[in-house]
Amino acid sequence: MDHDRIYKGRMSRRDFIWLMGVASAGAVLPGCATDPVTGKKTLVGLSEEQEVSLDKQQSPHQFSSDYGASQDDRLNRYVQDVGAGIWSRSHRPSMPYSARALNANYVNAYTFPGGSMAATRGILLELQNEDELAALMGHEIGHVNARHAAERAGKSILAQGGLVLASVAVAGKQQYQPIVQLAGQLGASAMLAKYSRDNEREADALGMDYMVKSGYNPDGMVSLMGMLQNKSKSKPGLLETMFASHPMSDERYQTAVQRAGKQYAGERGRTLRRERYLDNTAALRQLRPAVTAMQQGESLLAKDQPAQAETHFGQALGLAPGDYAANVLMAKAKLAQKKEREAETYLSQARAIYPSEGQALQLSGVAKLALGQADAALQFFGAYDQRLPGNPNTTFLKGVAYEHMQDRKRAAEHYYRYAQQAGSGREAQYAVSRLKEWGYVKK
Ligand SMILES: [Zn+2]
After folding, report:
1. What is the pLDDT of residue 190?
2. 278 & 419 share domain
3. Do residues 403 and 434 lie in contact, with contact meaning Cβ atoms separated by under 8 Å?
4. Ligand 1: distance of its center to the CA of 144 in Å?
5. pLDDT of residue 180
6. DSSP state, 36?
7. 203 C-alpha vs ligand 1 centroid, how far in Å?
8. Both 350 and 432 in a single domain?
9. Could you tell me if residue 212 is inside a domain?
């Protein structure tokens, strides 16, 4: 395949589909691997090397979409240390694990297949002791050990070809309205597998085993499940994302109760590590009122009520003016109301508060695009790329900037790269529709 054909000549639709297929197959090749938990040979979608490399590629962007690791070093170290106590006793102790607290306010915890994991400050504020934190991390470590993401990836390869075809077939003329949301919530779920209920059962069982082996009280798992159950009834919106990837059920809670009562009855007398949890989360707990205000604002923002959301973000900023997430969220509310100049003020504060974090840069670029300053936008997208290279969404946004500058050739290059990486979704359809309209891809 001569790459110049993409720009100079006319790629046939078949060429295009073939190239996209080659691109998506590059990172994901099905093969046989040994399940370290059962010792059985299973067909999985990713080798261990691929699990680690996908993790490295994708986790920084997901962490950034969750407003980056907390700037509270004590908290991050604590989450890392609790994690290390558990993964060292797992079936795959040599994976390159790491753990951090994230600045996101919603209630969630997740892991990438190589073991990069995180808990949001939203969920850390709900936990009562270190045993619950150990249970939470044990569960995520369970997913890594049973290789659930790899298994899911194997299944999705089979669907992939069809998805690419469909996106090419339905691509028509579309506008790029979703850009603000796009920059805010990066490729969130690409590798955050939607686990099955069987996956959840297995991760719960492994997690409880690992945490008990690490010296914790099994009741930590029981009360964690109880908390999640209660929250899913009282504040379902806050846990939506978590339950989308980790399905919650009454059965999971009941199973934890039974296991703690039988299998692990002997370890139930262990003292719950509450003091240590409170000490290490003291600074975070001072932020609780600000986090609550942000949660309220975010739920309004999600309902497309940015003016009402602004009130809550204003409250949060009053309580915690130096909070990175609060500044970024206020900027999002402003952007959603087309108040780009005001948004820029909050974004420049956010960049000063947390210079190494990417989301404020990406959004600053979007604000510049909205102001019709495409070259300034490109500088921000370039700055994001330097800090967090390899985000397909940045490629798409750069394409939009070049399109604004009427640099069709560069716009097409970027849309093409994006379509290769992203495969499906609204942005990919837009990119493909542009490539067709400009004659880079035959209709
Ligand atoms: Zn799970």
Report:
1. 42
2. no
3. yes
4. 10
5. 34
6. T
7. 6
8. yes
9. yes
Question: What sign does the dihedral 62-66-67-69 (CA atoms) show?
Answer: negative
Query: For residue 199, how far is its CA from the centre of ligand 1 (angstroms)?
Result: 7
- Angstrom distances, CA of residue 73 to CA of 102, 110, 137, 265, 295: 11, 20, 19, 36, 23
CA of 283 to the centre of ligand 1 (A): 28
At residue 193, the pLDDT reads 55
Alpha helices in 116-235 (DSSP H): 121-124, 130-145, 148-170, 179-184, 197-213, 219-234
- How is the beta sheet containing 109-111 ordered, strand by strand? 98-102, 116-120, 109-111
pLDDT at 38: 58
Structural domain contains residue 332 = yes
CA 308 to ligand 1 centroid distance, Å: 34
Domain extent, residue 146, equals 37-169+194-282
In a domain, 21, yes or no: no
Q: Same domain for 253 and 396? A: no
> Quick one: 156 and 236 in the same domain?
yes
Residues 374 and 426 in one domain: yes
Residue type at 241? T
Question: How far does residue 247's CA lie from ligand 1's centre (Å)?
Answer: 7
Domain CATH code at residue 316: 1.25.40.10
Instruction: Please tell me the predicted confidence (pLDDT) of residue 424.
Output: 64
- 200 C-alpha vs ligand 1 centroid, how far in Å? 5
CA of 409 to the centre of ligand 1 (A): 44
**pTM, whole model, 2 decimals?**
0.83
* CA–centroid distance, residue 400 to ligand 1 (Å): 36
Residue 433: per-residue pLDDT? 87
pLDDT recorded at residue 286 = 98
C-alpha 97/C-alpha 187 separation (Å) is 21
* Residue 441 backbone phi and psi in degrees, to 5: -130, 135
- Where the chain has pLDDT below 70, the residues are 1-45, 152-193, 422-425, 442-443
Measured distance CA(423)–CA(438) in Å, rounded: 19
Q: Separation of 389 CA from ligand 1 center, angstroms?
A: 28
**Last residue in a domain, options 282, 301, 330:** 282
